[in-house]
Amino acid sequence: MALKSGVAMEEGALIRAAQAGDHAAFEQLVRAYDQSVLRLAMNLLRSPEDAHDVYQDAFLRVYRNLHAFRFDCSFHTWLYRIVTNLCLDHLRKRKVRKEEPTVLATADGPLDRMDAVPEERVDGDPQRYLFSGQLRTRIREVLGDLTPRERMVFELRHYQGLRLRRIGEVLGTTEEAAKNCLFRATQKMRAALGDFYQS
Amino acid sequence: MKRENMTCDSVRGELSLMLYGELTFDEEERVESHLDSCADCRAALVRERALHAALDSAAIDPQPSLLWECRQDLGVRLAEEPVRSEAPRLNWWDRFVDGITLKPSGGLLRPLGATALVALGFGLAHLVPAMSSGGGFGNGVGAMSLADAGAARVRDVKPAAEGRVQIVLDETRQRTVSGRVDDQPIRALLLGAAKDASDPGLRAELVDILISRSQFADVRDALVYEVQHDPNAGVRMKAMEGLKPLVGQPEVRVALEQVLFADANPGLRTQAIDLLTGGANAAIDRNVDREIVGTLQELIERGEQQGYVRERCRSVLKAVNASLETY
Question: A63, B81: Cβ pair inside 8 Å?
Answer without folding.
Answer: yes
